Amino acid sequence: MQFTPLEDIPKIRESLRNVFHSGKTKPVAFRQEKLKQMGYLVQENKQALLDALKSDLGRPYLESDVLELVPTVNDIKYTHDNVHKWARSESAPFQFASSSMRPKVMKEPKGTVLAIIPYNYPLFLSFTPLMAAIAAGNTVLLKPSELAPATSQLLAELIPKYLGDDIVRVVLGAVEETTKLLELQWDHIAYTGSQRVARIVSAAAAKHLIPVTLELGGKNPVIIDPKSDLRLAARRIWWGKLVNAGQICVSPDYVLVPREVQDQLITEINLVHSEFFPEGPAESDSFGRIATTNHTQRIAGLIKETKGDIIIGGDVNLGKRYVAPTLVSNPSAEEPLMQEEIFGPVLPVVPVENVDEAIAFVNARQHPLVLYVFSQDSSFKAKVAAQTQSGAFAANELLLHVAAYGLPFGGTGPSGSGQVRGKYGFDTFTHLRGCIDQPGWIDTALLWRRYPPYNTWNQRVLAWITGDMFSDSKASRWWAWAWMAAIAAGFTMWSLSMSR
Ligand code: NAD
């Protein structure tokens, strides 16, 4: 992958700003056309994209197709079909005192957006902020990950072909190029990636007071109800852990299981494991690889240092970037496996006495991006939801909340802030511009009283007409409204008669 020359970066940003200021991206029909082209880009280059993802992540085609390409096109289509409604200006709620100004909210693009992308879902995570920012009428600089070189390179070739070379520009690079980008002024930065780099991005953005949206990760717990269907839980949890070899921000990170059913859950996971990989995971076409040797080494370190029992897997082949699906029972809460985001195919199972201990365990740590619960008991699910905080809450299913139509996606606290997806993403990249247009006659009718020289009588009338009030009595509120309406009608009639 050839990186973008550093000296080109300020010029690229300048050209994106100039295109934005030309007004080209503002018509909704233009935005819809670009969204349609994004859809065609993915549809018409499906095999090339699947091959690039395979080369970057060793990922099975089924996973790339169903969990990356399909959701990308679905989201683009949803955005394309709805952007005309989202972009419409909205009238403010009626209030008598301000109604003459006809207040409305204009939906305006923020300008030029910088989108920084991680390696693990390089297509979906590039198009998510891209489609939302274009739908909102912005120009975009996309910085895909150097750790997914085949997909990033392909995007750099396809984007100008389908979207033209002026409203979206791709910068290829790593730390140095991103650092250069972060020295510049942007109208919004959408960052998806690790908490470590999010701190760097936030600090750089603060220098220019740039608004930032952070889509981050963390440790996502799974809480098990001892009465739940453990076979179902085992199958879904093990699948959710092993998709993309565990390199998903919404992967289950660890399981909190009541001690009384811990052995049963482990037995079920063992059974599921042999069903998923009858020939062994290393030989299977249904299990991916780790993106880089460094990450493989990092995960190998977590396995090596564990004080828990390795029940399944544990083997690593650095050269092949292979980490076996690994189940660890009874790790210590202090070891690295339980301290940092795993982002690999290793699942610790931590025994707890009951749901209260599980909730306390979760609440003693950072708010996760998603909290999973397995239970068929609605009061159990409601209790976990009510007593915890997380970006999303999913009962009896893994990962698929991301695919649920129309839901917001994002973290809370250290797992992220803001959203870049769908309508919520459109709103992120949109400035809500409050607008009024006051007619001249309102001065004659009423507002001439605001001008000096001031007097007490004008003060009282203006405060009475424009001010709201708390009142316990419904009747007195109605009287106040009736009075105001009568006075306004009187003034209007008087001013009309004067103007004849
Ligand atoms: P990363 O933070 O290492 O890299 C993300 C981007 O930041 C890349 O484009 C990279 O070039 C750039 N970058 C890296 N180091 C930098 C530096 N020092 N200065 C400036 N820029 C730098 O993340 P990653 O390893 O690619 O992705 C994994 C992380 O992303 C995980 O923590 C995961 O949970 C998170 N993630 C979150 C979401 C979400 O939507 N919430 C989605 C996917 C991944």
Automatic annotation (TrEMBL):
Query: Which segments constitute the Aldehyde dehydrogenase domain?
Result: 7-432
- GO CC: one term? cytoplasm
Q: Which residues form the active site?
A: 215, 249
Q: Which Gene3D superfamilies match?
A: Aldehyde Dehydrogenase, Chain A, domain 1, Aldehyde Dehydrogenase, Chain A, domain 2
Against PROSITE patterns, the record matches this protein to:
ALDEHYDE_DEHYDR_GLU
Where are the membrane-spanning stretches?
A: 478-496
> Which molecular function terms from Gene Ontology are attached?
aldehyde dehydrogenase (NAD+) activity
Entry keyword Electron transport: no
- Record keyword Zinc-finger present: no
Q: Where do the coiled-coil regions begin and end?
A: none
One biological process GO term for this chain?
Answer: aldehyde metabolic process
Annotated keywords: Membrane, NAD, Oxidoreductase, Transmembrane, Transmembrane helix
Q: Which domain of life is it from?
A: Eukaryota
Q: Which family does it belong to?
A: Belongs to the aldehyde dehydrogenase family.
**Matches recorded under PANTHER family:** ALDEHYDE DEHYDROGENASE, ALDEHYDE DEHYDROGENASE TYPE III, ISOFORM Q
Q: What is this protein called?
A: Aldehyde dehydrogenase
